[in-house]
Amino acid sequence: MSACAIVGINWGDEGKGRMVDLLTEEYDVVVRYQGGGNAGHTVINEKGKFALHLLPSGIFRDGVVNILGNGVAVDPQNLWAEMEEVMSQNVSLTPENLKISDRASLLLPWHRDLDELEEQRLKDKKFGSTKQGIAPFYSDKYQKKTVLAGELFYPEHLTAHLADLLEWKNLTLTKVYGAKPYTMEALKEWIHDYCEKIKPYICDTGAFLRDANAEGKKILFEAQLGSLRDLDYGIHPYTTSSNTTAAYAPIGSGLPSAKVEEIIGVVKAYSTCVGEGPFVCEMFGDEADKLRKAGFEYGAKTGRARRVGPIDIVATRYGVEVQGATAIALTKLDVLSYLDKIPVCVRYLLDGKETDRFPFPVALSDSKPVIEYLDGWGCDISKIRKWEDLPKAAQEYVLYIEKEIGCYIKYVSVGPERDSIIIR
Ligand code: GDP
After folding, report:
1. Residue 46 is part of which domain span?
2. Are 323 and 263 in contact (CB under 8 A)?
3. Which residues contact 310 (CB under 8 A, 6 or more apart)?
4. Are 194 and 77 in contact, with CB atoms under 8 Å apart?
5. 3-class DSSP state for residue 105?
């Protein structure tokens, strides 16, 4: 049946949440399939302004079922805090509209500690982690040293399993990092305070999705972060610890047989990057400050100032290729309205030669951006809703990107609100 994935093409923060919120109108089910609460989607609609971290962006639509799939890092503490926050803003969350996979692994309290301890050990070589425990979580998941959400329904088994994990993990905490060991009492408190709260939402979401698919329901897969943060295809090791690419959606969602016919890649009209690692097109100084301010580029989760730069055609083309994007949503075009001339990173200069191929991660540090300029449009475009009403220079900017990245730009977003969109 009809399945679509909404994915990030760049470093994340492209505005995926905003696109999912818009497009959920046409879908019955929205599934988050990877990642955890370590990034944020900002969604603005008639119900208010929301910073989502783990909850799927379909929770604002009546009748849409939202799923946290087995590929997600479910952090009961953070998830419950986010659920309480959203519910306090009059959004209803019930086991009918929010379902957590019983096969999703739980992010355990020590994962956050281990993230912090390892970043401290690395000092100036740190990865720039958001310290939400995501990397320790996924490494433990692949060692089969986590707890599945469904184990909460088997208390005796859960206690014995946690006792084993506790013994093992305390070795690392105390002997490797010299940190305090965890106790079973602390884990029991964690179960009581957080796991019990999310338990009513946990169920066999795989069976639910298979049924929904058989009934012809429309399913939307929602990704976190972007291509360049994908564990396998991103800028290693400055990636996240899961696969942000659409190809992972069937596995991480719980519907391995899904055929994702439509892959909407979200691209920002300029570049931003949070955290460490090579960022070839980075701008500095006054030029960067102006762009950061115009786009309000501060992290939804961390409040950190994002690194900024012009759109990077080389990285974006690569992002489109690895996502297998079938259409593009170009966001934040309105932010560029203040510029007379718009810089574009068209190629990289590497080893004295210009290239339009995205290099091996190690070579990125030696790559320099080749910048060309396109005309600005010099007026506010945020109220425009039709393609033909966009100033010619703005149309040309969009068409130039479309040609260079080789993918049809179907949506042009000119503001954060749900209806600030031009559909071509
Ligand atoms: P996500 O994680 O990919 O959903 O992105 P974020 O939520 O971290 O960042 C996108 C930010 O840009 C949010 O604050 C959105 O409200 C905002 N936004 C999205 N689209 C547009 C747009 O077209 N114009 C403007 N001005 N803001 C936008």
Report:
1. 2-104+202-264
2. yes
3. 270, 271, 281, 283, 342, 343, 344, 345, 369, 371
4. yes
5. strand
| CA pair distance 181, 403, nearest whole angstrom | 56
CATH number for 153? 1.10.300.10
pLDDT per position as a tens digit, 25-76 = 889 999 999 999 877 778 888 888 888 899 998 999 899 999 999 999 999 9
Give tens-digit pLDDT for 112-150.
999 899 888 888 777 767 788 999 999 999 999 999 999
- Judge if the beta carbon of residue 234 lies within 6 A of ligand 1: no
Catalytic status, residue 13: yes
Q: What is the CATH number of the domain that holds 31?
A: 3.40.440.10
Q: Are residues 300 and 310 in the same domain?
A: yes
Active-site annotation holds for 53: no
What does the mean pLDDT of the chain come to?
94
Residue matched to tokens 């580029």: 297
Tokens of 85: 């926050």
For range 309-321, the mean pLDDT: 98
The pLDDT score that the predictor gives to residue 41 is 79
Q: What are phi and psi of 156, to 5 degrees?
A: -65, -45
**Taking 90 as the threshold, does the pLDDT of residue 282 lie above it?**
yes
Q: Which residues pair with 371 in a beta bridge?
A: 345
- CA distances to 188, 359, 360 from 367, rounded to whole Å, are 51, 8, 10
* CA nearest ligand 1 atom 20, residue: 416
Q: Are 223 and 260 in contact (CB under 8 A)?
A: no
Ligand 1 pocket, residue 44 CB under 6 Å:
yes
Residue whose CA lies nearest to ligand 1 atom number 25: 415
Given the residues 28, 41, 53, 230, the one annotated as active site: 41
The CA–CA distances, whole Å, from 188 to 82, 160, 171 equal: 21, 12, 20
230 and 363 assigned to the same domain: no
DSSP 8-class letter at 176: I
